[in-house]
Amino acid sequence: MSIHGTTNCDLYSNLLHYDDSEFLILSFNARSLSNKIIHLKTLLFLVNPTIVLITETWCNSSISDHSLNVDNYVFFRTDRCYGIGGGTIIYVRSDIQACKFEDKSLDAIDDSTWVTVNCGSQNYLLVGCIYRPPHADTKFDKLLTNIFSIASHQPHTFKIIGGDFNLPKIKWGLTPVPGRYNKLV
């Protein structure tokens, strides 16, 4: 499914007419998931996406797994251990086999979650959800570039990395990309 609309109305219209036999991944920045969980539950009930990537969950150890449960989905979360903000979570429809993917190299970015999805026929999908803070320095960008490289060399058949990369200086679809972000794009 591809969505070419430019308005929220077009997006919602296309999502509501989506054939759930297709593979659909949604990705968005929540800026606090716990106070929007009812909206997430409604969206997932109406659209029934295969996988959902959410950044800036703002979750921490005081927010229970139970409070983040959504019927017919399993989730894998990574909470920020310091300060306010950050955090990532991946929801996977419960009819899909998935498990958290642990790799110390990929976990070098605190605000990231990695999941392996069984696609059948011995095909596996690596799904990464990453949050890059808006004022990340060049050291973080080099780390992110390295993470992309490490992920690309994993034995999974397919790889998808999504999230909020906070790259406002990039004019998507135009070239050249500002030098600092060349290797990220």
TrEMBL record:
GO terms (BP aspect): cell adhesion involved in heart morphogenesis; larval heart development
Transmembrane residue ranges: none
GO cellular component: extracellular matrix
GO molecular function, one term: catalytic activity
A Pfam entry, by short name: Exo_endo_phos
SUPFAM superfamilies noted in UniProt: DNase I-like
Residue span(s) of domain Endonuclease/exonuclease/phosphatase: 26-174
InterPro entries in UniProt: Endo/exonu/phosph_ase_sf, Endo/exonuclease/phosphatase
Protein name: Endonuclease/exonuclease/phosphatase domain-containing protein
Species name: Schistosoma mattheei
